[in-house]
Amino acid sequence: MKRLLLLMISLTAVLSTVNAGAVEYPDWQGFPPMYTIQDMVEFNGTLFCACKGGLFRYNPQTREYTLYYKNHGLLSNDILAVAATLNYLYLGFTNAGLVRFDPVTEQYEQILFPEYTANRNKINVTKIFAMNDSVLYIGHSKGVDKINVYTKELRTFSKLGKYISENSPVSDVKVIKGKIYVCTEFGLAVADESNPDLEFYGNWKNYTYGSSRFNCIERVVDEYDDTIWIGTTGDGILFFNEDINAIQPSGITSGNFYSITKAFDTPCAASNNGLYKKFIRSWYSYDATYLGLKSIVFGSDGNLWVGTSQAGLKCYTSDGYTEIPSVGGPRNSTFYNFYLSDNDNVLWTTTSRKGENYDALVLRYDNVIWTEYREEEGILHTTVDITGDNNGNYWLPSWGKGLYVMTDIGIPDKSTVHVEKVDPAGDIIKYTIGKNFIVCSDLVKDKYGNIWVANHQAQETNSGAVVFDGYPFTKHQTYSPDEDGIASAEIMCMDADNDGWIWLGTYQSGLTGVYVGDDPFDKFDTYTVNLNLDNGLLGMLITTINHDLYGDIWVGTKGGLNRIKKLPDKRLKVEDLSTLLEGGSVEVTSIEVDKYDNKWIGTSVGGLFKIDAKNEAAGHYTTQNSGLFSDMILSLKYDNTHDVLWVGTDTGLNKFYALGTTPEKSDTEIHVFPNPFEIWGTNSFVTFTNLKLMSNIRIYSFNGELVDELVADQSGNSGSAYTLWYGKNFKDETVGSGIYFFTGITTNGRLFKDKMAVIRR
Q1: What is the pTM of this model?
Q2: How many other CB atoms are there within 10 angstroms of residue 686's CB atom?
């Protein structure tokens, strides 16, 4: 059955094409992880790599990289597949569909599948096979699509045979010698490409090999064989024997293989254990310099280009790997904790939580330079946080190996990195499991410069929160359930406010407030309050804590947002403020307070919220209306010096200029102010200047609907025209908050397109 393919051009339905080189969200800067390569292709002598952080181009001649990611207009950062035709590239995304990209003009067209866009869960495009500029085979999370871009024809194959489950995810699709080969986790599906009835499972043949999961398939012709090779998970390399119509093993019967190609006149394969090569009729491990290989392409320059899962792009010549420039930027995609040093305004961040990321590291960012601190420098991969003390030390708690302190006076060349373990004998920081596992889950610096450490300790009750006066320390004190009545030693997060309170968020026992006064090393005036569901907490698992400029405590839980107000006689009042997060019981993951007393609230699925100094909802940022890489926010840090909010997500790092950009004015752009435009009443207005006299300016909603049309009929002192907009639509109704786009003609006759934010009070 043939269905219509809707071709839609995307710039929020306003413009006909998107220029990927033009920043779509100028207030947002991005640092995507381009080291995780998921697919790649050569186009006109340059390499294009599909990454978890977007797309990059590498030119071997100039040795230069060009990055494309969501802040430049792409649909998403997570690109799973890329394929080249004579004139275009096709990009496949996670939950964002398919895009046709013109590498010359850097413009793209979004291609939408009507049967999927109506569903909440969109497809993941996992592999693209381009027969030519018009006909594509798209492997995705629910089967295979055959589309003709020019005739707008779509055929969907979700029933790939009786032995493969309907709507099975596809890992690779190829057309080889007139047959369609589809790799799935259940086996291989094969059909005649010319068959008009491939929507029916009876027209597909299935082939399996034990319980192998098939990842990739490729035909390679060399001087010995003309063979269809198959890469699997766990069972090495197989091949399809066309003579007996069966799948058979090769000499490699173990390992995970993701890409096969012909290079140096013989088949080569990319695996988790490195590069493999075939010699005559046998495969063997050829080079294990880099592990975790995901994709290989034999370039027109005679080199084998290798895409890795963690080390970016590599070049393999006939003599072995050769040096190429690093793609730059952060290596990891997750950013769990931030520290902004007071003296030099340098950002530090960690990329692990609970020791779950075994390639985690500590990163330092200073003036576009990234510095990595790894196990080579003595940094554990289980490091979960970083905080600097008043003596120039950096404290590093780990999930499993205890607490460490790092000094580095040779920054950024790492020549003098020195790491020491705090309390190596385990007398202060207690063991969690036996003698080999010590969990320090969080730390915070109080107003006196003391360092508080959460000694997350589940088996005993004589540990909890430990405070040190510095390093080397001369004083320390422990606050525990046994001695001080805290609810639990399973502490997940902490905060130290300016009124002498230490706040402890536990794993499943609610929130504890410990009043320690001016001297936390003397317990004479210690006072403990435990808060739980009966007191109004929205959840017993506390995820984050921070205090505002007026001393109120903001608490994030699995169930929403609480605020703790301090009353006389050390009494506490718990308030439910989840209504400020659009009324949802969303999981709060991070809370940051800026110098204006704005509260920035990160959530697990709902993006970023802003609550102003009046404690009113003042903004909501998601991947749909901002340059956010992901709606899963892991960490936040506000730079009060530059009014920049750092946003750590699960797919990259964002830098948000929270007060807006101040671009250099020129006669090539329309100037709009104020931006954001806050509508307080009937007399609020925004001004558009640098317009051509009597030209039109059109304002569109985020969904592409024309909201209002104005005429630049007023002349300014500079000779350019201007016009005012009072935030009304054609019906004279005040518009709602959101992102709006506008187009107009500048004084030099240039068509200009941009966006503005509207906040309706």
Answers
A1: 0.77
A2: 22
